[in-house]
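Think of the structure tokens as a kind of shorthand, similar to the way a musician reads notation: each symbol stands for something richer, in this case the local conformation of the backbone. In the example below we present two proteins back to back. Begin with the first one, reading the sequence and then the tokens, and try to describe in your own words what changes along the chain.
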Amino acid sequence: MSKPRKMRVVVLMHEDLVPPDSIKGLSEEEVAPFKTEFDVVVTLREMGHQVHALGVSDDLGLIRRAIEQIKPHVCFNLLEEFHGLGVYDSHVVSYLELMRQPYTGCNPRGLMLAHNKAMSKMICRYHRIPVPKFAVFPMGRKVRRPKKLEFPLFVKSLTEEGSVGISQASVVYDDDKLTERVEFIHRTVGTDALAEGYIEGRELYVGVIGNDRLQVLPVWEMLFPNLRDDAPKIATGKVKWDARYQKKIGLDTKLASDIDDGLRRKINHLCKRIYRSLGLSGYARMDLRLTPDGRIYLIEANPNPNLSYGEDFAESAETAGIGYDQLLHKLINLGIGYRLRGQA
């Protein structure tokens, strides 16, 4: 790989997650909320770039002033919400496009489609990509299960990410529990609910990088060795964010074993189809389920997944021979290249 040229980089992040210059003396729990932001900022600086960490909450003017004053070659986008709403992150990227400012990660159209889990599933189903059967339960309406939707069902927010509102109780086996869980999502998360068929099988994560030419990273797997046998093996909020619970269940994520060349090619081809069907760009992670009889289902497509050093996406890239600094360099080049592709 050629030596990267030194650039002016504005790293966009939530104002509460602007990292300190050093994490010396801080515990893992104290660092966890801003670990991605710290890893990206520090690594880019070590690469020789002129880096400006910009905290944003609800003021687009901050971004405009940074663009006008710093004149960044690229904005490295780590924003996951705006005005406290996750679905607004696509509007921030739209603003960057209006400013003709190159940025990393997914374009606003892809973000919008992927955020709405029902819409993304309908698009994928049209393209004959296997997804679980599903139904949307809007807020303020009585819960009525379509007859075609059979138990067990997995109930979650239609638009929220990061396992918000997901627990072991999210898998339901009768209409009473379905109603109870849908109402829980409406009440506590404040969004419409989605119920989809629960697919028993292996939890696989597959990273994809690129705009036109796509690179599929090695298949990663989440394992729950100490979880009780009758518990659904799902990535709940506690599984993702509770360090003590992770240790209790022996949570492990690593290169998937027993994936032969034929199955790997099938997964790679499917992930590229998903990526293109949803109009994604930059990078994304596909959450898949592999059933005991070898069927593969898309559960969710996640544009702009966690970029922390040592987490699934970066570890998978490392396994493919892409070091962390190389990964960030690649994402920057893709961001700049995506903007140039759309210019007159």
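Once you have a description of the first chain, move to the second and do the same.
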Amino acid sequence: MVTETDGIILRQTKIARDRKMIVLFTRKFGKISAGTGIRQSGKKSSLPLRPFTHGRYEIYTGRNSYNIDAAETIESFFSIGEDIDRFFCASCALEFTDKVLAESMPAEPVLDTLISFLRILSNRKKKMRSFLIMYEWKILYMTGYGPVTDRCASCGREDEPAGFSIADGGTVCRSCVDSGRINMRLLYSIKFDIIQILKFIGLNNIDSFANLAFGPETEDYLDRILHEYVSYHLDIRGLKSESYLSLD
């Protein structure tokens, strides 16, 4: 069966005979792995098979496989590739999205958020890292992995938060902290107004972050908590793209 759907390429690997195995985030199927035998005769024809391009894909679905039979460009965020900070920021976003998404689970709002992220990033002049951090936290909320911030993640009481517990998945109250039940090594103090920031990210769409940025200390702190959080809950450690990342 042949189906047409739009999507974004998250990752690709060259295989034999000029073919590629592509991890494609589609509107209809979610994240899939697909082969492609499309001949790339020129720059224009190969564009839909490159990162940072929103494309439309004609996909043949077999019993246990997908193959891209044709592709065309809907929107190319070409300016991302012209700036090294934008490039590595976008690369991190694609890799993070790939790690968080389950296979073959449609997630249309996440796809639209990724497209908006790339569109905004292609015109952003500074503070790329702040925007990336906001995007990553937003994706966690959208996929159901976001932290609890409106009550104690340990006991459920709506008391004033006394810390952010990685292991418990959100804010925890003073009683739980003092009880000895909390893993103190994975407990972060609440500073830089991070709880209000996380609530704002959870409640608003990516377009609301277009002109926002954090100070250096807030940026570092939110990024540190994010890395601990996804490592603990999703087993995501050390994105390859981040080894090249040196923004702002």
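Compare your description with these statements about the second chain. The CA atoms of residues 86 and 125 lie 9 Å apart.
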